[in-house]
């Protein structure tokens, strides 16, 4: 947990959820809200996962207020793992909480690994409700492992070249019919060991409209 992180709890459908909120620096009001979803709870995934924390820091740097929760059965969050269905419900409750707390701000969704499934499903729900997310950032996208919903064309997809948990080819196969580019980090494994800085650099550049053109596309 960052020194600046503020703990909070939120009632969920399976019990109390444990969360963290991080505010952007300075006195300017936040430009938006970003929700971060962590990797698989049954394999050690928590809201303090280093990729989830990197996403949080990236959005804080972009001027967003960022919220994370521990999924069911993780840390102080109550309940048991629900294979992504209940977790999507819980992320939806976090969305409601944050939009009530910060009304009128756009909401970005980001996730890592299992968290990409949750956020793709939440993005689908929001779009169907007429309140689409501002934009998505999916890192280590869990293609083929879970049935991800299709995502908007401006979604930022980042994947490691040497990911042996979710093969890069599976991400290409998922992204190709949607015609969404995949930004590939050379030499990166699933957890982006020693490559975390690339996530922050590229999300920031693409979010701000940077025109860098490297990596591979599906």
From TrEMBL:
Residues 54-146 form the Serine aminopeptidase S33 domain. Keywords: Hydrolase. InterPro entries: AB_hydrolase_fold (IPR029058), Hydrolase_4 (IPR022742). It comes from Pseudoduganella aquatica. This is Alpha/beta hydrolase. It comes from the Bacteria. The keyword Calcium does not apply. SUPFAM superfamilies: alpha/beta-Hydrolases. One of its GO terms (molecular function) is hydrolase activity.
């Amino acid at each position: 947990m960052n020194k600046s992180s503020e703990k909070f709890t939120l009632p969920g459908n399976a019990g109390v959820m444990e969360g963290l909120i991080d505010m952007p620096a300075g006195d300017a009001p936040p430009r938006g809200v970003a929700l971060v979803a962590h990797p698989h709870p049954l394999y050690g995934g928590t809201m303090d996962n280093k990729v989830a924390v990197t996403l949080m820091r990236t959005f804080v740097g972009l001027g967003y207020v960022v919220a994370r929760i521990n999924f069911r059965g993780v840390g102080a969050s109550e309940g048991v793992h629900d294979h992504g269905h209940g977790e999507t419900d819980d992320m939806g409750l976090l969305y409601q909480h944050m939009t009530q707390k910060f009304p009128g701000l756009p909401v970005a969704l980001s996730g890592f690994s299992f968290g990409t499934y949750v956020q793709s499903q939440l993005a689908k729900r929001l779009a169907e409700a007429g309140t689409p997310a501002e934009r998505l950032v999916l890192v280590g996208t869990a293609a083929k492992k879970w049935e991800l919903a299709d995502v908007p064309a401006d979604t930022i997809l980042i994947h490691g070249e040497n990911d042996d948990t979710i093969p890069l080819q599976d991400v290409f196969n998922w992204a190709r019919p949607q015609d969404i580019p995949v930004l590939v980090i050379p030499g990166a494994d699933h957890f982006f060991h020693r490559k975390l800085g690339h996530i922050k650099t590229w999300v920031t550049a693409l979010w701000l409209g940077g025109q860098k053109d490297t990596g591979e596309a599906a």
